[in-house]
Amino acid sequence: MDKGDDVIQSKKIVVLGATGTIGKMALDVLKKLKNFKVVGISAHKNVKLLLKKKIEFPDAFTALTGDRVEGVDFCGEDAIEALMEKTLPDQVIVGIAGFAGLKYALTSAKYSKRLCLANKESIVAGGNFFLKNVRDSNCEIIPVDSEHNAIFQLIEVEKSPINSIFLTASGGAVRDVPVERLKDVTPEMVLKHPIWNMGARITVDSATMFNKGLEVMEAHFLFGFPSDKIIVVLHPQGKVHGMIKLNDGTVKMLASKADMRLPIAYAIHYPKRIKAFEGFMPFGEFTFEMPDLSRYPALRLAYECLKEGDGARIVYNAADEIAVEAFLKKEIHFTHIYKIVERVLKNGWPKILDDYESIEAVDVAARRLAKEMVRRCC
Ligand code: MG
After folding, report:
1. Is the pTM of this model over 0.90?
2. Are residue 291 and residue 195 in the same domain, yes or no?
């Protein structure tokens, strides 16, 4: 650890989704830092791992959003609220995956000063409603999603107007499979991500680019750029995580190892930067090209959804999650994922949603419809 880090006072931090991919990495980061005290950890169902983590972080209260279990401090729907009330953390790392992240991110914002947000669904589904609530709670968001974290870092220090932003995409595990053969790719093939080590859904979403579609929406709300100023580029090496183009055409890039511990460490220390991990990677080859939309129709669909309004974004996320689950269970083909989402979107959805109940209702309805579409595909 750098000498200068000692001047930061010890901060209380809660890790939500502590047993998931991001949560485990966050705890790995926090284990090495003396200036943070982990006061709370949560999980949805994985009690065994939650209690194992509790041994490593004995000061942490535990919360389980699933059913009540002996030995866990807070359980059930209100567990996160109870955990926040008890610990009043300075920061919360929101590592929960999926739509549930929205509710718990809103709760966290009420009690904490900073959300280190890895849950993209809260921004995609919550949109302006979510951002306004977080702002009204006097809480700041530091994005942990690697592309957004990179763009946040670039924008942070830029004094000139920014013309557009670039999100990089690896193209996923089946990027070299001919388009006409994508129908036959298996979950085993798709789950072998070439660069990042992530959860199953996001790895599938990376191959379809639904993940990048969600990230375009996330970037729109986080940074306020219109959709035509958010450009996705294929960068198979996964070394550059975000870029900004300035008015004179200059492009600034952020490059580091593809290791989520770097954006996590940055988000919790911001505005400081610490050297807890070696982020430098050998330069080697850097290539950038525009993605082929016939291979990644989900990307085009994301831009359409952004124009369609609040309901469409919620549906894009919810229907995809259901379709990905079905693909992983081998109930549908890989290419059915896009078709299901597209069909559910055609149902027509509300353009403006400004309360949690209406947002949740659209999410529930979209999931129900997507399940019906899955049954028809089987
Ligand atoms: Mg990302």
Report:
1. yes
2. yes
